[in-house]
Amino acid sequence: MRARVHQHFGASLVYDCYAGSAQNTAFLRDLHLPGPKPEFYFAPVQIRKRNADWGPHEVNRRFNAAQRAFIDHAREPGNGWLSLIQERGFGAAQERIARLVAGGGEPREGYVVELG
């Protein structure tokens, strides 16, 4: 898909950013694509930048507010595009991660695991 987008837009494409995948690393190979070089999004780098810009307290406040708004919106049955699955504890987290790594999970499911 990335190659098709780059081939189609060429020099008109101004930015390409991607996140990693635990299941598919084929997208990491160098495809010698026209247009901008794909940039890997790595959350810790962005968090460090925001900590420097806003300070850790403000980063946490904004993140928590945005996450709460997203969860509240997704939880509404009328929105219908995502079903939240809530689980609790470290054991549940370990099981969920193992299932996801093994290819389990549905695209329409979002998992919220509370550790404490």
Name the average pLDDT: 87
Count the strands? 4
Report how far the terminal alpha carbons are from each other. 40 Å
User: What value does the Rg take, in angstroms?
Assistant: 18 Å
Secondary-structure element string: HEEHHEHE
What percent strand? 5-15%
- Model regions low in confidence, pLDDT < 50 over at least 5 residues: none
Largest sheet: 2 strands, parallel
Gross geometry: extended
Helix coverage percent: 40-55%
**Spatial strand sequence of the major β-sheet:** 1-2
What would you note in describing this structure?
- The chain is of the alpha/beta class and 116 residues long.
- It folds into 3 domains: 39 residues, no CATH class; 36 residues; 35 residues, no CATH class.
- The protein has 4 helices and 4 strands; from the N terminus they run αββααβαβ.
- The strands form 2 sheets. Strands 1-2 form a two-stranded parallel sheet. The protein has a two-stranded parallel ribbon with strand order 3-4.
- Strand 3, helix 4 and strand 4 form a beta-alpha-beta unit.
- The mean pLDDT is 87.
